[in-house]
Amino acid sequence: MNDQIRTAGQWAWAMVGLTVLVLILAFVAWLVRSIWPPLVLAGAIIYVLNPVVTTLQRHHIPRVLGAALAYTSVLALAVVGGLLITPIVVDQADGLADEWPSLRADVEGWIDDLAAETTDWVVETPTVEEIRAEFADDNNSLGETLDRLRNVGGKVIHGALIVILGPILAFYLLVDLPRLRLVADSLVPPARRDEAYLVAGRLNRALGGFLRGQLLVALIVGVMVSTGLAVVGLEFWLIVGMIAGFSNVVPLIGPWVGGVPAVVIALSTGDERQAFWVVLVMVGAQQIDNHFISPLVMQRTVKLHPAVVILALLVGGSVGGFFGLFLAVPAAAVLKILAGHLWRTYVLNEPIEEVAARTAADDAHPGSGVVSDVLAPELLEAP
Asked: pTM (2 decimals)?
C-alpha cells in the first residue's frame, strides 16, 4: 500500500512538473512566435523533398547536389505550370474583377432576403447595410489611412520574408539531416535510444504521411474540380478549382469552404440549372476523394477519430488562423502518439519490445496508405 501511495505521489508530481514545463515552453514559443511561420514552411519542404534527396543519396549522389536537383526540379515544374495556367488565371481574374460588384450585390441581396424571411423565428439580425454602416468611418483621417497602409505593408514584407527564408532554411537542413541525426544521437542516453527511435519513427510517419498525402489529395481534387467545372461551363472554372484544391488541405471543413465560391458564381453568372451541375461536380469530387483517393493515399496516416479532428480544427483555428487549421491535425496526432507512448510505457509498464511490436503491427496494416508505404522513407534514417 505504501509503495502504491508513493508511486501515485511521484506520478502526481511528475504531471505537475510536466504541466509547468509545457506552460513555460508555450510561453517561450509565444515570445518568439515570429519565427514559426518560416520554420513551418521549412519543415513542410523538408518532408516533401527529403524522400527524393534520400533516394538520390542511395544512388551515390551527394545530399547537397540532390537537394539542389530537387529544388531545381520543383522550380522548373512551377515555371512550366505557371506559363501554362497564368494566362488563363489572369484572364479569369480580370473577368472576376469585372463581375465582382454584381456578385457582391447578389450575395448582399440573398443575405437581406434571408434575414427578412427568418425574422419571425430567429433573433433579428442586422442587414448588410447596417453592418456596413457599423464599420464605416466617416472621420477617417489621412493619418489613419497611412497607419493602415503601413500595417498592410508590414504584413506583405513579413509574408515575403517567410517565402524567402523558409526554402533557404529547408535547403540547409535537407543537406545536414544525417549530421543532425548524429547530434541527436549524442543527446539521447544509449539506454533510451531504441525508445527514442521508435517514437521518432512514429512521429515521422504520421507527420510526413499526413503532409505529403494532403498535398497530393489537394492537387488531385483541384484538377478534378477544375475539369468538371470547365465541362459544365462555369465561367471562372480554374480559379474556383484552385480555391477548392487549396482549401482541401484542411480536413473535413476545407471542401465546404471550396464549394461555396463555385455555387455563388454559378448562381450569379449562370442560372439554377448550371448551379445544380456545379453542386453535382463539387459533391461528386468530394465523394470520389472521400471514398477512393484519400483512403488510397493516406488512410490511417494520423489515425484520429473524426470528432478529435473537428475539436483540433476548432482549437487550431481559434489560436492560429489558417496556419492553426493546417497544423491542428498533425499537432493532435503528435500529442496522441506521445501521450499513448507515455501511458503504455510508464503507466501500464509495458516493455518497449511489446510497444514496438504493436507499432509494427499497426504500421503493417494494409490500409496504411501508399504515401507512407512508398513515398516516405525514414526521415531519420542512418547516413
From this structure: 0.68
